[in-house]
TrEMBL record:
Transmembrane segments: none annotated. Belongs to the acetyltransferase Eis family. Acetyl-CoA binds at V82, G83, V84, R90, R91, G92, V93, L94, S95, S115, E116. Gene3D superfamilies: 3.40.630.30, SCP2 sterol-binding domain. This is GNAT family N-acetyltransferase. Residues 2-146 form the N-acetyltransferase domain. It holds the Pfam family Acetyltransf_17. The active site is at Y120, F389. Keywords: Acyltransferase, Transferase. It is an enzyme of class 2 (transferase). Homohexamer; trimer of dimers. Its EC number is 2.3.1.-.
Length: 389
């Protein structure tokens, strides 16, 4: 009989981490790793499934914030460390954990990164944002013009101190971006130590520091140098362009790789746009609307005639109902619905990565007034988070 409990003490947190890591086919944390991971455990946000006294399944969340279309910042749960011990899978353990977690989350929205695409739709998560992985032929990459500001390299200690402050100061603007919590930065520092040769550079413009980039270069057995950009944050176009100039002019580098927003105009930087090649498009943000009325009111809408949307949510029935969405906002109504959508797919259209018309074409939703619904939910920028957790 599976029982779900909220964990409170440190010994249990470590057992929780060991079960999660085993589920991912990784070894339990060493003492050294545990020192780094331990502070990232947030009380009240750690769930475990028990068989008797043994932990057999895990889930947890981190308190953060999320940018929604229109720019509002909404309290957000970043869901992570989900795993079930291999000798207990496919017996409903994850389902029990998800039910308990959803009913107790303190925030109106949750997002996660999925190890597999078939796991989370049934729990109301929709694929809400994707990234593209691009590869740049650095030998042929020419960005015309000069830097407008200055780029300086930081030592690790300075970067550890400066980056969280700079990230906070730059702020969040693109829908899908999330606030980074203290435990995220601690893990990031650890990953950088693992990578050893990770390098951080900071950009400053007329008003001071306004962007940063973390990258690492690996050498292949053919002595090619491949640079991968691990973190790239900027406040304005000059910082963005200057950091690209810096990285594209580094000596010895043959290839640059980065995951970026689908609509980031990186090809237009280069004299020859063909130096930028899209290698892959992959799902990034899986989004769960935990409190549908609050989340529908949190974002802004485009110009179109109002549409009444009926939402179905099997796990959180308080969300069931009809919502009239107009350029002025969203409200619950009792009017007949123009279209009906399950909560996972409302999550998929919420940030603007996909549209009602696209979902209707695949027969995933039914209804009329699709063009108006598309126009209401249309966004000027594709969603992208850029913060892995
Ligand atoms: C993914 C995982 C957590 C699922 O746990 P579980 O306890 O087996 O899940 P449940 O038994 O509650 O399954 C619920 C439903 O989802 C389905 N399902 C679960 N995992 C699935 C998967 N990986 N692929 C396809 N379907 C899956 C089950 O078949 C079941 O369907 P049903 O209700 O129609 O029978 C577990 O397999 C695991 O730990 N995997 C490795 C670690 C991992 O990937 N963690 C997720 C990190 S994002």
């Amino acid at each position: 009989m599976t029982e779900i409990r909220v964990l409170t003490d440190e010994a249990q947190f470590r057992a929780h981490m060991s079960v999660f890591r085993r589920a991912m086919h990784w070894s339990p944390p060493s003492d050294e790793q545990w020192q780094v991971i331990r502070p990232s455990y947030e009380p009240d946000r750690v769930l475990a499934a028990f068989d008797g006294d043994e932990i057999i399944g895990t889930a947890s969340s981190f308190g953060s914030s999320l940018v929604v279309p229109g720019g509002a910042l909404v309290p957000h749960s970043a869901i992570s460390r989900v795993g079930v011990r291999a000798d207990y899978t496919r017996r409903g353990v994850l389902s029990a954990l998800m039910r308990e977690q959803l009913s107790s989350l303190p925030d109106p929205v949750a997002t996660l990164r999925a190890s597999e695409g078939r796991i989370y739709g049934r729990f109301g998560y929709g694929l809400a944002g994707r990234w593209r992985t691009v590869e740049i032929d650095a030998r042929r990459a020419v960005i015309p013009g000069d830097l407008t500001g200055r780029v300086r390299m930081l030592d690790q200690d300075t970067a550890d101190k400066l980056l969280p402050e700079l990230h906070e100061a730059i702020g969040l603007t693109r829908p899908g971006q999330i606030g980074r919590w203290a435990g995220w930065w601690a893990r990031q520092r650890d990953r950088k130590t693992e990578a050893e040769n990770s390098v951080t550079v900071v950009h400053s413009g007329p008003d001071g520091d306004d962007g940063f980039l973390t990258y690492k270069v690996t050498t292949t057995k053919d002595f090619d140098h491949e640079l991968s950009i691990e973190d790239f944050v900027w406040a304005n176009d000059d910082a963005w362009r200057d950091l690209w100039i810096y990285v594209s002019r580094l000596d010895l580098v043959d290839k640059i790789e980065i995951d970026l927003a689908l609509d980031e105009p990186v090809s237009w930087l280069f004299e020859d746009p063909r130096v930028v090649r899209t290698k892959d498009v992959f799902d990034e943000i899986w989004l769960r609307l935990v409190d549908v009325p609050r989340m529908l009111s949190a974002r802004t809408y485009g110009v179109a005639d109002p549409v009444v949307i009926e939402v179905r949510d099997e796990l959180l029935p308080a969300n069931d109902g009809r919502y009239r969405v107009s350029p002025d906002g969203a409200e619950r109504v009792e009017e007949p619905a123009d279209l009906t959508i399950p909560v996972d797919l409302l999550g998929a259209v919420y940030l603007g990565d996909t549209t009602f018309s696209q979902l209707a074409a695949t027969r995933r939703i039914e209804g009329t007034r699709l063009a108006d619904a598309d126009a209401l939910f249309a966004v000027p920028q594709k969603p992208f988070c850029g913060t892995f957790f």
